[in-house]
Amino acid sequence: MGNERNDAEKGYQKNFWHRLTANIIRFRWLWLIGVIGVSVFFFSQMSKVRFDNSNDIWFVEGHSILKAKERFDGAFGNTDFVYLLFTRERTPFTSENLEAMSSLAERFMETVPYARKVTWLGNVERIQGLGGQEQEVLIEDFLPVIPETRAGIDAKLQEALTESEIVDNLISRDGTVLTMLIDLETYPEDSEDSNPRYSVVEAVNGVLAEPAYSGLKPYFAGGPHFSYEYDELVKQQASKLFMLIILVMTVLLFWLGRGPRGIVVPLLITIIAVFWTIGTIGSIGFTMNLLGIALPTMLICVGVGDSMHGIAAFHDHIDRGESRIDALKKAFGEVGGAIMLTSLTTAAGFLAYLMTHVKPYREMGVYIACGVVYAFVLTVILTPILYSFGKKHPKPSRRRNKEKGAGDMFDRWLQLVYRTVIQHPRKIVVFFSAILVLTFWGYMNMKVESNTAKLVFKNQPLRQTIDLIDERLGVNFSLEYLLNTGKESGIKDPEFMEKLDKLMVLADEHPLVTKSTSVTTVLKKMRRALHGNDPDFYTLPESREALAQYLFLYESSGGNTLDRLVGFTYDQARLTLRLPSLDTFDARELSDYMHANIDTLFGDGEVEIIEAGGMRNYLALNDILFEGQRNSFIAALSVITVVMIIVLRSLKLGLISMIPNVLPVFATMGFMGLVGLYMDVITISFAAVIIGVAVDDTIHFFTRFKAEFNRSGNYERALNITLGSVGRPLTFTTVILVIGNAVFLFSYLLGFFKLGLVFGVAFTWALMADFFFAPALIMIFKPLGPERQGPVSNQKELQ
């Protein structure tokens, strides 16, 4: 026994982590000053972090969506728009309020950056023929003078409802909603304005706050306001969830830890790691986005595990009667390598997002990987330092004294695990295999939703505004088409115009389209005006010459909308579809419908068709989300499998060790499919996260199991000692992961609510697989070879 202790002592002395811990304790004040200095630097960089939830952030440079947007912006300007909706009940349609709307439109043009044109019912173009032999056309505002009486206003509103191009665009079909549309210029790429959308929203809100417009109470639609309000909600949620996770962790550590230091040290380490990570984001000029709300919570949940393993090992040595300093050095000599390995594999799991084409996931993978490494570095520095102060020989824990009783609830839980695995290994394998089959069926029924508007709970003001606008008018989103003839004046071909008009009519006929607009509307109004305003002539010109003349006459008569409808050399035309907030399935159906009609009308290939707009972005995002999850999962699985095989130095054991990491992924996806939860831009990220985090427990379990088997040569004894040594901290970290991530259940964002739910399911299954499924497979297949007689271990066993 004495020789065994001497050999162990020599092993500790030769251990890098043992020596490093001794150095850190010896020069603890210098190490503390270093940590403080680095913290001050990163704290100073946090103010540089900015949020960006625009559609463009989801796509990597060179993606076809960004190329399409660039083409579209170059031809017609920005696809972004701002819609203001004035409902009769909130903003009565009185003469005073209509006058205020007229003034508001002018004020917006003066003050809103990037404003290209502001249109509302009062200033929308009205094309009328004046009669006579000269066939004169008058183009003027629909309301050149605001009526002063109720009867006059009602008459004008009724007249507007007879203009098909105005209805469902600037006035609702029931006449209870008026709108104001702010078309925007293309945002400059090289500008001091870091967030043009914010600038637009802040300018709009600033104008509406002026006393002259106090009677106007609009609702807002369009990308800028949605992004602005969404960002504000994300920031509020980030602060709320950060404070909540700190509270939850404090309670958990009070329950699971031993003394005040068991609470303060893990929290302090993870909070500093969060600040370092955010400071890193600011220092390298990256942005935070929708996924940023998960950063603090995930880092705290993951980072606490590192320090808990070190603290648990420290208390194990204290319980054996060792001194404080010796216990610290030996504890980190034992777990330091495992903690480093788990941190690297977790970081690798998150870095697997670099394999996706979803930019926020790439960035989030880098952010959390940095945070995980920071948490590891802080753990090996601060834990020994902060635990080195105090009595030389702390008192052992009474509740862990096995000689005096059966231990606490966690020890009894681990005893149950051991007995179940030893007595029923085949039943366990059958049970878990059945779970995999069942959840695979659920996985086949899983759906993806990429519309971020659907990620907000319906009781939130932002979602209520979106739903109200959808119900009353339906102009939250747009689908844009650029039709390029490839030649100057190519759109002046009557055949092309007839096809474009037919496509617009077909779009209008689709039940999901609120309104479609193209240059053919202008041409038909011009022809009607030139024929005495006869509605029978609301048709397209029949010859190329007449078509060119109508376009020239329109511009010479004061028309000013062609620059948003046709290219400068008349080589391109635009078709705009205004839409409600559609789910991905409906948006896909509409896009397929439009493509089928495009193929029918323009199938000869002479006209290039480019699809753009917010709804197109969501569809493209839906496609790359599936690809991204697959690629990141395969990358994480491949890297971690290789690492486990190398670390365990056994192909069989390495492959068995991956089962606890793969099972929770498929079980959770199957669970979502079975209960009808769709995946979205938030929850679709969980596969690589789960395998990256779950592998931490697997590494601790399997490295310890192999070491104990090498000592004893007996599978049952190795499992007994492994559960007795690492089973407790593994249970603790899983409880922390499950309950810690449960704070997402308090989020106003549906995607994060579901994330909290699926993480709870996944990490619970991961622990069950580590404790039951994998050991049962080991007992059956004996991947380390036949049993043999080994030296008796001095490690504690489960009773």
Features:
24 helices; 8% strand; disordered N terminus; alpha+beta; 799 residues; four-stranded antiparallel sheet; elongated
Describe this structure in words.
The protein has helices at residues 2-14, 16-26, 28-45, 64-76, 95-111, 150-160, 196-208, 223-256, 261-283, 295-319, 324-351, 359-387, 409-423, 425-444, 461-472, 494-509, 519-529, 544-556, 584-602, 614-648, 651-675, 686-712, 715-741, 750-781; strands spanning 81-87, 115-120, 125-131, 136-141, 177-184, 219-221, 448-449, 477-484, 515-517, 572-579, 608-612, 679-680. It has 799 residues and is α+β, with helices and mostly antiparallel strands. The strands form four sheets. It has a four-stranded antiparallel sheet, with helices on both faces. Strands 9-10-8-11 form a four-stranded antiparallel sheet, sandwiched between helices. A hairpin with a 4-residue loop joins strand 3 and strand 4 (136-141). Helix 8 (223-256) packs parallel to helix 10 (295-319), helix 8 crosses helix 23 and helix 11 packs across helix 22 (686-712). The protein is elongated and about 110 Å long.
Tally of individual helices: 24
Radius of gyration, CA atoms, in whole angstroms: 33 Å
| Average of per-residue pLDDT values | 86
Categorize the overall geometry.
Answer: elongated
Most strands sheet: 4 strands, antiparallel
Unreliable stretches: 1-14
- Walk across the major sheet and give the strand order: 2-5-1-6
User: Which class do the helix and strand fractions yield?
Assistant: alpha+beta
Number of E strands = 12
